[in-house]
Amino acid sequence: MTINSNKMLLNQLEKWHEDYTPELRMVRKPFHTPGYHSTLKDVAFTHPTLAACVYALGLLDSRQPLHVERAHGILEQVISLQDQNPEHATFGIWSWFYEEPLERMAPPDWNWADFCGKRLVLAEQRHSDILSPELREQIRYALYCACDAIIKRNVGPSYTNIAIMGAFVTLLSGEVYGEEKYLNYGLERLRLFSEYTKQLGTFQEFNSPTYTIVAIQELSSIHTATQVAEAKQLSSEMLDVAWGMVAEHFHVPSKQWSGPHSRAYHTMMTPEVLSFLQFASQGELNFMPDDQLTYNLDWYGNDIGCPEKYIPAFKHTETTEHVQTISKDEAGDIVNQATTYMEGPVSVGTFSKDVMWNQRRNLLAYVRNGDASTYIHLRLLNEGYDYSSGIYSSVQKGKDVLFGIGFCTNGGNTHIGLDPIDGTIESSDLRVRFEIGGSQHEIRAEAVSPAADSALVHIAEQTLQVKKIFAAFDGEQPRWELGQEPDKRFLDYVIYTGERKRFDFASMQEALLLFAWRLGERGDELNAEASVVQANAEVRAEFRAPNRSVLQLTLPLKPAEKMKMLRPRP
Fold first, then answer.
1. C-alpha angle 515/520/525, rounded to 5°?
2. What are the two backbone dihedrals, phi and then psi, of residue 31, each rounded to the nearest 5 degrees?
3. Could you say which DSSP state residue 550 is in?
4. pTM of the model
5. Is the CB of residue 12 less than 8 Å from the CB of residue 295?
6. Per-residue model confidence as pLDDT tens digits over 411-462
7. Which end of the chain is more exposed for a tag (fewer CB within 10 A), N or C?
8. Are 382 and 494 in contact (CB under 8 A)?
9. What percentage of the chain carries pLDDT values higher than 70?
10. Where does the pLDDT of residue 46 fall: very low under 50, low under 70, confident under 90, or very high at 90 and above?
């Protein structure tokens, strides 16, 4: 495949033109949020500030006079929406939408200094010759405000994509305008990120289909745009880490990005991600016809390329297992470890300890199903939305997983930090869900008694077996339930459903669920059991499999503070 970036840019811009609203000088997009930051309700379309920045840079990249004129108007409009009052807490950032000013967001998203700032500094670097002096001055001042906001916030290296993007905006702004303060900050931030990543051996935002792609784009942007030799070297080294992570998690039979995922917005591989991989390999990876590729305006002018040494990993089908430490405590003990196992048509991935946030994929499996693939995603739902104060713990060997879900007293509800529960929630429905999505071909769930210990779901030639080995939740009587939607099936372990009631985790004495889980070709009985250790108020579980290791897990029976629940247990 020969990549014609100019042609792909112009074709993509044609699609964006359809969304342009001349009177607002912005682009209209279907309203979507992850469920936090925005307070907008019952809105079909909005005019996002970030989309406007992306479109404006794309217009400038085309270098066509009419496009350049439109870009001028868009950039003037977007800059007018930035908070440029240094007395405000939101100084230097933008709201998500024209329809929702910063003061109405709950809370505002400080990442928008990074996201919007990136497009502004690239507009100045690439196209200063076709921008008016007045607009260039507006861009310069907006970037200074954004850089000051980024520096004041000073995100640490664990926030992978924003750590990189903030380094890019400040570093390149410092280069473009000769501002040593910004350049030095950006370079030091990149150094810190590099050192942190090397010590950990991977990105803190581990194996995220969304943000690993963002990290590759941002690191490639640094490597492409900067003239600072050290920044080029550091970005090159970190790109190698990113591409290695992508390559070793690609499951060829299902054509999916194996779990576990630290942050994900989609559980199945999107056409955009497959297009990115095909584009980055210069067509050496062929996932779809050229005329079906999705082109991202951010790719233009950015030297994005998968190192040749990683290409074979996107084609191999051998059985593999990857184990990676994700975090350690102050004493150096492992807090969270990621395990990925791929064998034939199946891939299974788990974290050893994490929260049950809607962006986490703590237990995630893929199965090749005919010409497509099916996923299995473990969720904990409070009234239909992922409940972030559930604490997941597991051990995995091959396709066997022993895991438990406990509950903390001071986590979040829909988000890990934005809506703290303060020890209690009110709920009319609380359940563990094994969501089975993707291809619904050849899926059959065996009828399950509500009081049964085990449940089975057949997917193509594989069988998912789940055995409840311990369940205690404030006197409730959890039970199995099967459900389905047009494109998904559910194996649910219902903790509570009924009239809305209050659950007080601070006073609760028992709240723990333990399961044995296997995905394989045979449906042998799962040999697993648990026992309560009264002296320590904990539960010890054991999962034994023929010719395989014995999996063991000990977890607290009673809810506790989040940090205590996330500590490694002796």
1. 55
2. -65, 130
3. P
4. 0.90
5. yes
6. 999 998 888 888 999 999 999 999 999 999 999 999 999 999 999 999 999 9
7. C
8. no
9. 99
10. very high
Provide CB contacts within 8 A for 480, sequence distance 6+: 448, 449, 450, 451, 452, 455, 468, 491, 492, 493, 494
Give the tokens for residue 514. 């333990």
d(CA 32, CA 50): 13
| Residue range 361-418, pLDDT digits in tens | 999 999 999 999 999 999 999 999 999 999 999 999 999 999 999 999 999 999 988 8
Round the CA-based radius of gyration of the chain to a whole number and report it: 25
Closest CA to 357 of 435, 261, 471: 261
Which residue, 117, 138, 134, 242, is CA-closest to 182?
A: 117
- For the record, the structure tokens of 513 come out as 């669920």
Q: Inter-axis angle of helices 112-127 and 133-153, to 10 degrees?
A: 140
Residue 125, Cβ density class (10 Å: 0-12 exposed, 13-18 middle, ≥19 buried): middle
Task: Quote the CA–CA distance of 378 and 348 in Å, as a whole number.
Answer: 12
User: Which residues is 456 bridged to in the sheet?
Assistant: 465
The tokens for 16 are 């964006």
- The pLDDT value recorded for residue 2 is 61
Check whether the bond before 559 is cis (ω within 30° of 0): no
Number of C-beta neighbours around residue 181 at 10 A = 14
Q: 């184990």: which residue's tokens? A: 323
* Degrees, nearest 5: CA angle 413-416-421: 35
